[in-house]
Specification:
This protein is of the alpha+beta class. It has helices spanning 23-30, 43-54, 59-69, 73-82, 102-106, 109-120, 165-170, 198-206; strands at residues 94-99, 133-138, 150-152, 155-157. The protein is built from 8 helices and 4 strands. The protein is globular, with a radius of gyration of 19 Å. The structure holds FE2/S2 (inorganic) cluster.
């Protein structure tokens, strides 16, 4: 593979671009401040909020989040680039994450991935021509007892086999949850705290 050359003198953010984070979005992020001892600790909820709104967290959004949390932009980039859940560039409208860890691999995860590649006409990291799906793999999705698993956006599909792939792709609600996982990050007065127990939260996030 050829090395990609990056010209560090070229600005990656247009200095004249309008703010990407609306005041409402900033306010939602700020509402987490009282919950933590430092603003830095709000980084993960902030990134979830931004990605939920914009579909990805680009360089400009990273810089604006950094300003809001009073940390360095590289700290934000470290986190965005560490977690595959976050993306610095646009993906398809839905992201499919197929588990590639041991339990799923033993139970046929590879077949699911290959079937997806064939039916979507893309390779791993590819986005379909209509912009509908981006296909990726991920380490354990924490549902090993239902292997093989895949996520469509935030919705988990368990015990999937190659024959299920076509019907999952054809279902326009294949990513719908009763409560988006990102809403679980809502401040106590608006979201998760209204649920009485952690099992309530888990149940809501699993609901289809
Ligand atoms: S190994 Fe696939 S969910 Fe854990």
């Amino acid at each position: 593979m050829a090395w990609k050359t990056i010209d560090r003198n070229q600005p990656v953010i247009d200095p004249n671009a309008p703010p990407l984070l609306s005041e409402a979005l900033c306010e939602k992020i700020r509402s987490f401040f009282p919950r933590y001892e430092t603003k830095r600790a709000v980084l993960l909820p902030a990134l979830h909020i931004v990605q939920h709104e914009h579909g990805h967290v680009n360089y400009q959004a990273m810089k604006e989040v950094a300003e809001l949390l009073e940390i360095h932009p590289s700290d934000v980039m470290d986190v965005v680039s560490f977690y595959t859940h976050f993306s610095s560039h646009p993906r398809g409208r839905k992201t499919i994450l197929v588990c590639r860890s041991l339990s799923c691999e033993l139970m046929g995860g590879k077949e699911v991935l290959e079937t997806l590649k064939t039916q979507l006409g893309v390779d791993e990291h590819g986005t379909t021509a209509d912009g509908r799906y981006t296909l990726m793999t991920e380490e354990c999705l924490a549902a090993c007892d239902h292997a093989p698993c895949m996520l469509v956006n935030e919705r988990m599909h368990k015990g999937v086999n190659g024959d299920d792939v076509a019907s999952i792709l054809a279902d326009s609600d294949n990513d719908k949850l009763a409560m988006p996982r990102s809403d679980l990050f809502d401040p106590p007065e608006h979201g998760a705290a209204e649920l009485e127990t952690t099992s309530d939260v888990a149940e809501m996030s699993e609901a289809k």
